[in-house]
Amino acid sequence: MQKFFLDDEKPKFSSRNKFAKMGLTFDDMKLVYDQNATVKSADIDVSTVLTPTLKLNLPLISAAMDTVTEARFATELAKLGGLGVIHKNMTIAEQADEVKRVKTATFDSDIYPNAATDNQGRLLVAGAVGVTSDTVKRVEAMAAVGVDAIVLDSAHGHSEGVLRKVSEVRDAFPTLNIIAGNIATTSGAAALYDAGADVVKIGIGPGSICTTRVVAGIGVPQLSAVRDAAEEGARRGKAIIADGGAKTAKDITKALAAGGNAVMLGSMFSGTEETPGDVFEDNGKRYKTYRGMGSIAAMEAGSKDRYFQGEVNEAKKMVPEGIEARVAYKGALADVLAKMMTAIREEMAKMDESSVADLSKNGRMTRDISVIDYEAEVAHVKKSYTMPTF
């Protein structure tokens, strides 16, 4: 694999060697086109395999956010070939019911020939859990209604509590697909795989409304993090998911070229008709709400354990690592996804890559001169702001 760093040596981070390693993100890298490309966009295989029982016909997964993924959105995304992750800001019974709604949804295979389904022809769906005392009970409830994967979600996946919880869930559910994260290093990926994760999720702070980079000063530029984790995954024959930072179809293509087997999206799916929440108007324009799971509102609703603040019961004492925004209403997911996938296919065709698997393996990118951490720049005005449409 092509390395993103100037030196092959990768010394550990330390106070004595702060700049040992150059990290690169989306705006630092350019895709390399093949002037002799013969692949046609219509012939490109955009399917991906995360595990033997988790095969998607689109390399796209929706974020487990309470303004993005509930049953309605997850059902539509699965019918179109992707995977939705039901968020955990609800009771155990409510989350299990959301999963059940997806698993029992009916659809016309002639209209949705690329639907992502299990071996019984039911739509695929995943559910998010955190590091809490009721994690196993939550998993058990979702497993009982047929959930296809559990996403054990934390802002710091390479931590003792998360690793213990992954092992606990693995021991209790030996055959269940476990996706765990988030991490941003090779060692983090290795630790989660060793703990029992089938798939590892990469991304510390790159999300458009995540402020971890600003608040905590922690994170690794996303493409470097993806590449490092991908190398570990490749050694083990396991998959990774690039989570966060993608703003365009070209960014999604870069995340796949860096070694991602799939890309998790929040902001690019936000504002679609099927996401939770009502459409509202302001000055003649239509919007929906979109908020980071590290925002005060989301943490009060149930996500505070993700940010290691599970014992904090007063909002004024919480340290937010996300913000709340409004996004332009985008219309039906099917229409947004059609444009997105057309653009991704066109990028892949220009690179002469005939499949997502080949794109991830070949890594056709070159470094640009920019080294600014754009991922840390969420918003210059820390209040509700308007996100751009896709």
UniProtKB/TrEMBL annotation:
The record, for PROSITE patterns, names: IMP_DH_GMP_RED
* SMART domains the UniProt entry points to: IMPDH
- Asked if the record carries the keyword Hydrolase, the reply is no
**Which catalytic residues are annotated?**
C210 (thioimidate intermediate), R306 (proton acceptor)
The UniProt entry, under Pfam families, shows: IMPDH
Which intervals hold domain IMP dehydrogenase/GMP reductase?
A: 23-367
Q: Name the needed cofactors.
A: K(+)
Catalytic activity of the protein: IMP + NAD(+) + H2O = XMP + NADH + H(+)
In which residues is NAD(+) bound? Answer: D153, S154, A155, G203, I204, G205
Q: Does the keyword Ribosomal protein apply?
A: no
Residues that bind IMP, according to the entry?
S208, D243, G244, G245, G266, S267, Y290, R291, G292, M293, G294, E321
An example GO biological process term is: GTP biosynthetic process
According to the UniProt entry, its GO molecular function terms are: IMP dehydrogenase activity
The UniProt keywords, alphabetically, are: GMP biosynthesis, NAD, NADP, Oxidoreductase, Potassium, Purine biosynthesis
Q: Tell me the residue numbers annotated for binding K(+).
A: G205, G207, C210
Q: Could you say which protein family the record assigns here? A: Belongs to the IMPDH/GMPR family.
Task: Indicate what this protein is called per its UniProt record.
Answer: Guanosine monophosphate reductase
